[in-house]
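During the reporting period the student researcher (J.K.) took over the structure-prediction task from the postdoctoral fellow and processed the backlog of single-chain submissions. One of the processed entries is reproduced below for the supervisory committee.
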Amino acid sequence: MLEKITETVNFIKNIIRDTPEFAIVLGSGLGKLQDEVEPIHILEYKDIPNFPQTTVAGHEGQLIYGILEGKKVLMMSGRFHYYEGYSMETVVFPIRVFHLLGIKNLLLSNAAGGVNPNYNVADIVILKDHINMMPEHPLRGKNIDEFGPRFVDMSEPYNKKMIAVAEKAASDHNIKIHQGVYVSLQGPTFETPAEYGMIKAIGGDMVGMSTVPEVIVAKHMDMNVFCVSIITDLGGPDVAFAVSHEEVLNAANKAMPIVITVVKGLVKNFQ
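J.K. obtained the following structure tokens:
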């Protein structure tokens, strides 16, 4: 795996010939954020050695190197999910690549189902913590010492300074924003009313099928991590609304201008 990652890193390095300041991973329906980047190089996943291929609608399958708010960024339009049948080491493969490219800051985004009664569809939530309920752990197996320690400190999974900068960006534009706890499940089924109730009972504000494996691996490599969720549906024991992937994408599209404002503010002002 280390050899494959190194081969991928060398391929990308030979093209971009620079060290981006931020890596950004776009979740379901968040592809429009890539339009904000002034592109320098666009790499199709299929052309990158050892890179997986995305199979989910709303995930484009491109690695975009360019300029956002005066900063060099490497944007991943389309992520990989455990439910697609990929191994965990494949799901987190790009995060390992970002680290070996010298990138210190990782910005993640996702679509999530809300269980907090204060949330509405299309609300924006900054992750302050998470609960990992995936059936596989991305660090299971022999530790690769070149990446990080065997046992990883997760006392601050999401960088508090990044959260503060993003919240100020939201405040400056009179944007209402929440902080919450994200619970990760395997998927690909949306949760039943009882499962939504369980999420709430264990301390979760929202639930999704991604992000947490990426965060764990990023923290293993001592990266600064920030994540923003769009609430695309609501659920609970007393909430039985039907939900579809199309509705998720529609809600993400509605919230997109707000996410763009917050992420641009973070990229511009985080030092």
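The committee noted the following: The first strand starts at residue 22 and ends at 26.
J.K. will present the remaining backlog at the next meeting.
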